[in-house]
């Protein structure tokens, strides 16, 4: 029986999401909860995140590589009573093995919720501009939406998982 890349993505998500939830549930109890402390999150002017991708727009998508950069624009986000911030994110995603000439440039609004000293989550609505050959009939702009979480190893470095449409990304965030 031959598995498609979509089957691999589904298996990965079925394993990764419960593990992240379990890690969060255990880790949040052992540290300081800061969600009700507006502004109590790392101060940074740029978040740099290189990442690995698994895509599911098409059966042959992924794995790939990419980069996401986020600039914070609102230190205390849309809800003044909780610890949240808002940024504008932009990046570059591609499949260097099979489709080096096919890439996308995502642009998103990133809304962060700082839950504890080691955990934050975010939502990212936006769009990706598609470039490259082999896109016959494809639209040049693709709507995207992601949710994700970060395990903060230090105030300046975190492991990041982003899940949504059109892909899944695992990376390392550097808060500069």
In spatial order, strands of the major sheet run: 1-2-3-4-5-6-7-8
Low-confidence stretches: none
Rg over CA atoms, rounded to whole Å, is 17 Å
Which structural category fits the helices and strands?
mainly beta
Distance between the termini: 47 Å
Number of helices: 1
Q: Return the CATH class.
A: Mainly Beta
Shape: globular
The CATH topology label is Porin
Helix content: 10-25%
Mean pLDDT: 83
Strand content: over 45%
By CATH, the architecture is named Beta Barrel
- How many strands appear in the DSSP assignment? 8
Largest sheet: 8 strands, antiparallel, barrel
- What is the total domain count? 1
| SSE pattern | HEEEEEEEE
Topology:
Elements: H1 5-29, E1 47-55, E2 64-74, E3 84-95, E4 99-114, E5 119-132, E6 141-154, E7 157-165, E8 167-175
Antiparallel strand pairs: 1-2, 1-8, 2-3, 3-4, 4-5, 5-6, 6-7, 7-8
Task: Describe what this molecule looks like in 3D.
By secondary structure, the protein is mainly beta. The chain has one domain (5-175): Porin (Beta Barrel), CATH 2.40.160.20. The protein contains one helix and eight strands. The protein has an eight-stranded antiparallel barrel with strand order 1-2-3-4-5-6-7-8. It is globular. The model has no long low-confidence stretch (mean pLDDT 83).
């Amino acid at each position: 029986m031959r598995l498609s890349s979509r089957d691999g993505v589904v298996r990965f998500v079925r394993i990764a999401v419960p593990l992240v939830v379990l890690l969060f549930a255990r880790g949040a109890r052992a540290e300081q909860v800061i969600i009700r402390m507006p502004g109590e999150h790392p101060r940074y002017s740029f978040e740099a995140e290189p990442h690995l991708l698994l895509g599911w727009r098409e059966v042959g998508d992924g794995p790939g590589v990419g980069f996401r950069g986020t600039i914070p624009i609102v230190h205390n986000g849309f809800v003044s009573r909780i610890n949240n911030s808002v940024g504008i994110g932009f990046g570059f995603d591609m499949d260097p093995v099979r489709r080096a000439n096919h890439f996308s440039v995502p642009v998103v609004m990133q809304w962060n919720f700082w839950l504890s000293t080691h955990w934050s989550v975010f939502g990212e609505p936006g769009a990706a501009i598609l470039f490259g050959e082999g896109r016959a009939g494809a639209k040049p702009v693709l709507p995207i939406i992601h949710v994700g979480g970060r395990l903060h190893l230090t105030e300046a470095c975190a492991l990041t998982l982003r899940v949504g449409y059109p892909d899944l990304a695992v990376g390392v965030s550097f808060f500069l």
